[in-house]
Amino acid sequence: MTITRLQRTAAAAAALALPASLAFLAPQAQAQAPAEPFGPACSSVPKTGSGSLDVMAKAPVATAAAGNPQLSTLVAALKKAGLVDTLNNKENITVFAPTNAAFNKIPKADLTALLANKAQLTKVLTYHVVGKKITTAQLLNGSFTTLEGQKLTTKGSGSTYTVNGTSKIVCGNVQTANATVELVDTVLMPPSS
């Protein structure tokens, strides 16, 4: 059986067209999800030194958070709950990290009581941690089981995402040595709390 020049040309054209046509089949959500850190609070992350994105990327998550001025209340809470080593030693996790502004939304008496109750504080803080790395594309419409044991949900697109319908990711896709960090503007409470 002889292959004509026309058949060879048609086969070559089909081979070239295949990758282009497959691009149309790729999920559009992934093209929309930012690969770099995103969100309005990212602009207040230090550009250099302790707490900068470059320094955070080299340290485990709790240590990295300690250098970020937006996360000082979270770091104090992690220390009170005894979770610093636990988070630093876990691999490939995602932490929905409440900013200082998020903790400031809690009435002072309630926050003082939460910080004084190690069991409840541990429950709340572990509800902010998912035992796997979540990509920004997975935030589009996600449901994830937390270390606390219950699920949290995410929705959004582009660079606008919410957690559990109300908490906004204000600086997302921040990388540390062992985690992806999503800074959120509200402390997430486990459903049974």
Molecular structure report:
The model is unreliable at 10-31 (pLDDT under 50). The chain has one domain (29-184): FAS1 domain, CATH 2.30.180. Helix 5 (72-81) packs across helix 9. The protein has a 7-stranded mixed β-sheet with strand order 2-1-7-6-5-4-3. It is globular. The chain has helices spanning 5-25, 28-32, 53-56, 61-66, 72-81, 84-89, 100-104, 108-116, 118-126, and strands spanning 93-98, 129-130, 141-145, 151-157, 160-163, 167-175, 179-184. The protein is an alpha+beta fold. A hairpin with a 3-residue loop joins strand 5 and strand 6.
Major sheet attributes? 7 strands, mixed
Instruction: Give the full name of the CATH homologous superfamily.
Output: FAS1 domain
Number of DSSP helices? 9
Helix-strand sequence:
HHHHHHEHHHEEEEEE
Q: Uncertain segments of ≥5 residues (pLDDT<50)?
A: 10-31
Total strands: the figure is 7
Structural class: alpha+beta
Mean pLDDT across residues: 87
CATH class: Mainly Beta
Q: How are the strands of the largest sheet arranged?
A: 2-1-7-6-5-4-3
Q: What portion of the residues fall into strands of 2 or more residues?
A: 15-25%
- Can you give the helix content as a percent range? 25-40%
* Number of individual domains: 1
**Which architecture per CATH?**
Roll
Q: Compute the separation of the termini in Å.
A: 74 Å
